[in-house]
Amino acid sequence: MSEPVLRCENLRERFGEIEAVRGVSFEIAPGESYGLLGPNGAGKTTAISIVAGLLEADAGEVTVAGQRLTTKSVAAKSAIGFVPQDLAIYPDLTARENLTFFSRLYGLSGKKIRGRVAEVLEIIGLSERANDQAKTYSGGIKRRLNIGIGLLHSPRLLILDEPTVGVDPQSRNAILESVEQLSGQGMAVLYTTHYMEEAERLCDRVGIIDHGELKAEGTREELVALLGEYDKVQLTGSGALEAAAKACAGIAAVQTVSVADGAVELLVESASAALAEILATASEAGVSVHSVEVDEPNLEAVFLHLTGRALRD
Questions:
Q1: Residue 304 lies in a domain
Q2: Pairing of the two strands 231-239 and 287-295
Q3: pLDDT tens, residue order, the chain (313 aa)
Q4: The whole model's pTM is what?
Q5: 3-class DSSP assignment, residue 32
C-alpha cells in the first residue's frame, strides 16, 4: 500500500482547563478524501489548525508527505494546500491576477505561472470569467477562486475547511465536482463540512470527532454498521402479497417480513445486494410490484448515535 500523505498520531491540545483535542489519530492515503465531522466546539478547528501547521500541538506528531510537520516547517508545509473558511482573495484583482500573485508567493515563475494559472482556472470553472474583478463574483464563485489559490503549487494534501458554506446550489455542485476530480487525480483531501450529504458524496472515509476525541472512523458502510440496523424495504403492489412475504422470508439477507396496507415490508441486511433476489422472489410468488422504497441507515443517524447531538449543535 502507498505511504499515507498525512499521518496524525495522538494529537493533544489544551487551552487552560479545556482539553480541545484528546489523542486524535488518523491518516489519509494518496487519492483519498477524508471527512472530519464534528459539532461546534468538538475540536475540529483545533485539529485542522494543527494539521495545517498553524498551531503547535501540546503532544503528538503530524507527518505530511513523509516529513514531520511543526509550525516552523517549510518542506512539509509546501506539500499542503490550505483553503480556509474565510475568503483569502483580493477583491480588486481579477481571478487571473489573484492566481498569478499567489503563484509568485508559492515560488512559481515565468511560463510555469501562466501554465499553472490556466490549469487551475479550468479546474475551478473560471476560465471564461478569468479577467473579471473578484468583487464582481457571487459568493460561490469567490469560494471557487479561494480553492484555486490552494491548488496552485500542486499540493500533495488539500485541506478544505467548510468550503460550501453560504453558497448557491450551482456553485456548491461545482465545488463538489472539483473536489471529486482532485481526489481522482491522486491528491489527498481533508474535508470538513456541516452538510452530511457532502460527506456521503465526497469522502472515502469519515472521522467523527466530539469533545476532542475521535469517536469513530471508517467508510460509510463501516460507520453505519456500528448501529447494527438493517435496511428497510417496502414493496407496494397487487396480487399474492402473503405468499410473496412467505417466500421472501426464506432469503438469507431478509431478517423480518410482514404485510401491511397493500405492501410487503422487509428488514434486510444490505438491501442493495439482495434487492434483485427479493423482487424476483415476489414476482414468482404472484405479486405485481408497483413501487419499491429502500430506507438505509445514514451518517446522520450514526452521528447522532455517537455524539447525542446534531452536527450544527
A1: no
A2: antiparallel
A3: 579 999 999 999 999 999 999 999 999 999 999 999 888 788 888 999 999 999 999 999 999 999 999 999 998 999 999 998 889 999 999 999 999 999 999 999 888 999 999 999 999 999 999 999 999 999 889 999 999 999 999 999 999 988 888 788 888 888 888 888 887 788 999 998 878 888 888 999 999 999 999 999 999 889 988 877 788 899 999 999 999 999 999 999 999 999 988 899 998 988 989 999 999 999 999 999 999 999 888 888 888 878 876 665 5
A4: 0.80
A5: coil
Residues spanned by the domain of 172: 6-225
Number of structural domains the chain divides into: 2
The answer to whether residues 98 and 236 belong to one domain is: no
Phi, psi (degrees; rounded to nearest 5) at 184: -65, -20
Which sign, positive or negative, has the C-alpha torsion 281, 287, 292, 293? negative
Are both 211 and 282 inside the same structural domain?
Answer: no
In this structure, are 143 and 60 located in the same domain?
A: yes
